[in-house]
User: Which sequence fits this backbone?
């Protein structure tokens, strides 16, 4: 693993960053990883692992100090997502979703909103991001959830589909259309909905292929009255907020996918170095070495690219959408290929639930679908080369 150790050394973490990474690694190895298979089997929401993360104050990594956090570089946040996801992809996405849902509040919220809501996030409150609807997936502008102003309140009607932490989050960032704006894109607005809002209900968690411990639920809003003070920005600011937020959550999805890919690579190489057939370890067959060479090369390149994207963001760049799409596309395609090949290298044992690679392959698939399917990301990247 020399190439990966060198990449890690090049990151040159500050001592306090390294201390956080060491603490996360310890909790990941000692608490999260040993519970992952059980949670996958029972489909229980993994409160024990979420509480272990909260014991380290990890939401504070992205919440400004004035609101109870102790923020660090985005690169460190991505490294944390990767370590947690390597141990348990469900826990990894629950943690990352706190960032995805609440970062727009940090970037676009008013001082009053931040003072009121962010200390709850810093203290370990769960966040959620609700965009997708039954008939509005890849094209989010087709959403029909309606925000109707009514005095000091906004009345929300409609529904959302497939929302991560929909039933467990304390604060949900919900996108909908402002009833008084007659424009499919220009009407999109963003509202923070608090868990116990009357008229808001989260449905039963979906029975999923992977990430089975993460609660993915439909949401329904029936005359739900949300204080107008929870509107982010102005009516109609939603699309701008949505696009800016996705650019920062997509590298985080890449980190989640790389965590899964790293777990599969470690299991695969360990198994290939012990399993013997025809008198040799299966890692000694040249065909299998070519497979390892391809996978290790792509893993190293994806890691290096994600470092590049993180450096852009930490450096204050604002135009990094295509770079973020490349990271999401390549990391998630790699996670799927890596986990599928890891199952293959385990032979029949890879198909048996006793081996972690079976779960990793199921967990990897969603990374190609959410936060923009990979078809959509290929379009975004390709379109960027068309001259205007
Ligand atoms: C486990 C899970 C968790 C999720 N968590 C969240 C969440 O927290 N918040 C949230 O808002 N959403 C969430 N989603 C929703 C997810 O982001 C969407 O499923 C995804 O964006 C795709 O939308 P869709 O399912 O409606 O598929 P569709 O958009 O209907 O796509 C179907 C197929 O058509 C293809 N396609 C669509 N449009 C085009 C096009 N223009 N060109 C080429 N091909 C195209 C797609 O690539 C795909 O292969 C989650 C989904 C799952 C399964």
Assistant:
């Amino acid at each position: 693993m020399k190439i990966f150790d060198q990449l890690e050394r090049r990151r040159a973490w500050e001592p306090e960053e390294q201390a956080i990474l060491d603490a996360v690694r310890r909790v990941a190895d000692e608490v999260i990883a040993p519970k992952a298979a059980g949670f996958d089997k029972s489909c229980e929401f993994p409160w024990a692992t979420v509480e272990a993360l909260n014991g380290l104050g990890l939401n504070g990594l992205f919440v400004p100090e004035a609101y109870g956090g102790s923020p660090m570089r985005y690169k460190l946040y991505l490294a944390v997502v990767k370590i947690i996801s390597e141990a348990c992809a469900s826990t990894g996405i629950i943690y990352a979703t706190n960032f995805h849902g609440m970062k727009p509040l940090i970037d676009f919220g008013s001082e009053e909103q931040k003072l009121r809501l962010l200390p709850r996030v810093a203290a370990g409150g769960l966040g959620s991001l609700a965009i997708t609807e039954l008939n509005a997936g890849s094209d989010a502008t087709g959403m029909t959830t309606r925000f109707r102003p009514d005095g000091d309140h906004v009345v929300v009607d409609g529904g959302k589909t497939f929302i991560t932490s929909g039933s467990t989050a304390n604060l949900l960032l919900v996108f909908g259309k402002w009833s008084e704006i007659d424009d499919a894109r220009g009407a999109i607005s963003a509202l923070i909905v608090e868990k116990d809002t009357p008229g808001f209900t989260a449905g039963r968690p979906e029975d999923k292929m992977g990430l089975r411990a993460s609660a993915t639920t439909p949401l329904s809003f029936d005359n739900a009255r949300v204080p107008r003070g929870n509107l982010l920005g102005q009516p109609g600011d939603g699309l701008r907020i949505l696009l800016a937020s996705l650019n920062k959550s997509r590298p985080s999805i890449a980190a989640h996918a790389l965590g899964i890919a790293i777990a599969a690579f470690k299991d695969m190489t360990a198994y290939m170095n012990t399993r013997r057939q025809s008198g040799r370890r299966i890692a000694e067959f040249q065909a299998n070495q070519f497979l390892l060479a391809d996978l290790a090369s792509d893993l190293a390149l994806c890691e290096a690219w994600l470092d590049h994207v993180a450096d852009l963001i930490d450096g204050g760049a604002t135009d990094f959408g295509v770079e973020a799409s490349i990271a999401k596309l390549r990391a998630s395609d790699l996670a799927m290929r890596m986990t599928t090949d890891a199952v293959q290298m385990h032979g029949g044992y890879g198909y048996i639930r006793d081996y972690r690679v079976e779960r990793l392959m199921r967990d990897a698939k969603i990374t190609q679908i959410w936060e923009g399917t990979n078809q959509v990301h290929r379009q975004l990247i390709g379109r960027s080369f068309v001259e205007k």
